[in-house]
Design brief:
Elements: H1 9-13, H2 19-30, H3 35-45, H4 49-56, E1 72-74, H5 78-82, E2 103-105, H6 134-139, H7 144-152, H8 154-164, H9 176-185, E3 192-197, H10 206-213, H11 215-229, E4 233-238, H12 243-258, E5 265-270, H13 280-287, E6 311-315, H14 316-326, E7 333-340, E8 346-351, H15 356-362, E9 370-373, E10 379-381, H16 392-397, E11 406-410, H17 416-430, H18 436-455, H19 459-475, H20 479-483, H21 486-494, H22 496-499
Parallel strand pairs: 3-4, 3-6, 4-5, 7-11
Antiparallel strand pairs: 1-2, 7-8, 9-10, 9-11
Helix pairs in contact: 2-3, 7-11, 7-14, 8-9, 8-11, 10-11, 10-12, 11-12, 11-14, 17-18, 18-19
The protein binds iron/sulfur cluster.
Length: about 500
Amino acid sequence: MDHRVIRGGLAVRSRRHMLLPVLHEIQDRAGWVSRGALEYACRRLSIPPAEAYGVVSFYARFALEPGRARTEHVCDDIVCQLAGAHPDQGVNCLGLCDRAPARLDEKQAPAAESVRYPDSRLLRRVGIVDPGSIDSYREHGGFKALRRARELGAEQVIRQVTASALLGRGGAAFPTGRKWESVAKAQARPHYLVCNADESEPGTFKDRVVMEGDPFALVEAMAVAALAAGCEKGYIYIRDEYPVARRRIARAIEQSRDAGLLDIDVEVRRGAGAYICGEETALFNSIEGKRGEPRNKPPFPVEVGLFGRPTLVNNVETLVNVLDILNGEFADTRLFCVSGHVKHPGVYDIPLGTPLRLLLERAGAGSIQAVLLGGAAGSFLTPEQLDVPLSFEGTRAIGATLGSGAVIVFDATADMKQALLRIARFFRDESCGQCVPCRVGTKRQEEILERMFANGRGQADVMLLSDIAQAMRDASICGLGQTAANAIASGLKQLPVLNA
Ligand code: SF4
């Protein structure tokens, strides 16, 4: 009665998660995000402008000045530098390492190459099936696993996934069945399903190949996961630099829904150029319309995830494996992305435990100076370590990790100092800045390396670098800070050329 009551505030504020899609829309139409457009979006979504500014300025994709937005990108990350890209003149890895040196024009993004993967289990349909046709997918065995899952019911599906001993392929190698079971048993509602397709680790491009070449497989796998874990709503968060994958997945969702094969609503969310959003809790924040900053864990996503609800989050490769489990065709293989100095860069599906040397032979590697295993957060291996079995235990035994499955090969001509500096720059760029050890440590790490490579390796700098690495490992909130020194430390320890 006194006009001091405003109704509907909660409903308006609950649209906060639309902030990133709205910003993308503004930028796609106007070429940048002007102050006026941002303020209008803030009014409509009931977001304080200062907070929205914090979000828009967080993501590399959004431009706050005219003429700053880029729709063409040239990569100068590790693999592209090996192929001749000039250092310091481009962007971080575009996930096109099999086509290095890579350039991406978003408006004319290349279609998936019609490469066939003859002896690959997971990629057997890529290059064969029509990625735009549900009928073609069905002709190649599509939706058999979903039918089977519906017959079995949630409990049995989880039992089969658990029995397969499938470990998550995103890097953390957590048992998939256990994760599904935890979400299924969580009391709070609704349950969310999130597919992490924000593949941004340098040297990694397998999820792109799956999404571009076999998009219905991912949609089917999400339908199975949602059924098993009782999820009411799903999201696929795809990195901004994968426009073809995004379009094809959206189309596959539409066709599957029209065919009555998707019981839940699945939404494609577009990343905005932040590597850290590959970290699951940063990804949740990004979907919620916030800065992509990781959260402290615990609580873990299976209890308190997206919008504070139990959330099942899996990466693309993990999900697609579930189809073969239900179809009785599962084998413990893993996708590896081989790039750098090899004759046949690409994605290889090989049994876990295969010696690295065999994979390199298949990819056509010649003389080798070093191999970076696991991407920028991984470690350098020497030619003497190439017999390491590519398994979680095998790599752990030599202090390495499979990580995202990236294998970057350096021959004798490679400038290893440049490679280490590029890794340091990558982490400096991508640290979200939320915690001091990582924000400051990644910057100092780069400065010390530059000094060491310019002036020689002084004992004081070596000690300083190792102290910073320890501080980042011990006191960073998330995996980015905790692993930002790994590749650099292993390179300095293992590669003689860096000790000269
Ligand atoms: Fe952000 Fe780095 Fe801290 Fe992770 S470790 S939360 S990336 S500042």
